[in-house]
Amino acid sequence: MSESCDLNGVYQFHGDTFEVTPTVKADFDKYGYIIIRNLLDVEEVDKVIKEFEDPSTAELLNNNKVKVSDCQGREAKMTIWGHPGNDVSGMISRSEKVAGTCEQLLGDEVYHYHGKLVTKEPFTGGAHLWHQDYGYWYINEILEPNMMTVFIALDKCEKRNGCLQIIESSHKCGRLDHKLEGQLTVTDPTRLDKIMDRFSMKYCLLNPGDALFFHCNLLHCSGQNSSAYRRWALLTVYNTVSNQSCKPHHHPQYIRLEKVPNTAIKSCDKFTDFTDKRILVPKTFDSKQVIPKTPA
């Protein structure tokens, strides 16, 4: 397996829109991801950080955090919500440059499956093992892997603070079996070794505002945060309308996503209104559904 930071499918956000050209779509289909640099500009990043650092919001998030141990004395933390809401982070998840881009990449109308703030704090942030997101969502009886995640860096993501690692084109291998190792879920190691022999592993080095759009079957992991710098990221998961779960579970069924223009992010002044987001309380999770999710 080769290791590199030389990513494919990297694009730059310019102006007010992002066009999913045939080349962009071909890169997503081939590699299982694209990266859009500066999807959020400095003002937009500052706004969402202001929201999550607001004392009242921070208290709410802290009271509902899922802590995931990596069995090496460290842990990653996340707060998960079911609906985008009308706050700043909700405007990002509902924006054309995020949700609209996902619709073009998946070729279908999408809805908000869930969102989360994932944090790796300095010196204590834990690792996540190699996995596919669809390894979890398959258990929720979602029949097709027509789903994707948008990972938006709120802090600089580097090797030393646990940036994402991906295996290019691994989404073409289909859904792999997963098993629990402590609180983490990891894919079948025998199959993983063979995949890593064939495909390239890449480090996703991101600056604040950069976004990774990736397919739900793309293998990914992340290391521990051994640095003095935190690693915060906003993640939004989308499912396609035709791919609803066959059973009710802790994530929402289809609710039409009311997309907003990209300008709605900067015009939004709601930093503490989580009323409509439906935060998932950890104690309500069903352990049979392999929860908590370990996204990155």
Automatic annotation (TrEMBL):
Keywords: Oxidoreductase. The keyword Oxidoreductase applies. Its EC number is 1.14.11.18. Its cofactor is Fe cation. One of its GO terms (molecular function) is phytanoyl-CoA dioxygenase activity. Coiled coil: none annotated. The keyword Oxidoreductase applies. InterPro entries: Phytyl_CoA_dOase-like (IPR008775). Pfam families: PhyH (PF05721). It is an enzyme of class 1 (oxidoreductase). This is Phytanoyl-CoA hydroxylase. It comes from Mytilus galloprovincialis.
